[in-house]
Structure formats: structure tokens, C-alpha cells
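User: Can you predict the 3D structure for this chain?
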Amino acid sequence: MNADIAPMIVPAEFPELQALAWNRDAARPIPAEEAFALYERNWRFVDQKRLTTREKLLIQALADKFGHGILLTTV
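Assistant: Here is the predicted structure, written as C-alpha cells:
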């Protein structure tokens, strides 16, 4: 997968990322690496059934770029 993603991500454009960024202005762009860290650190709170195709593609692109293709999650 091509890991070419925007350097800044707007959490409000991705429902689950917006939920993870509850304590900040979701309309304010955050660095892509920070978005990856939010997903990775808080994966247990992500409702995977609510992930849109676009958000799934974002998560995979972030994992490809910052996680060597892997999103570390806790079960």
C-alpha cells in the first residue's frame, strides 16, 4: 500500500479519530504521526464497526508510514 498521506490530519474528518481526540479541537489539524499514535495508544476505544472505508485506508496508510505496516494494539 502506498503510504503517501497528508502531513496533517483533521480528526473531524474521521469519526473514530474524532472520538479519540475528544479533549482537543477536532477541526484543528494534527500531525499524521500524532494521529497514528492516538489510534495505536487508544485502539481499545475504537469502534471498529463504525470505521468508514476512508478511515480504514487512513489507518493502514499511517501504519505503513509510521509503524512499518503494523498497528500495535492491545487486546
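The longest strand covers residues 8-9. The two ends are 25 Å apart (CA to CA).
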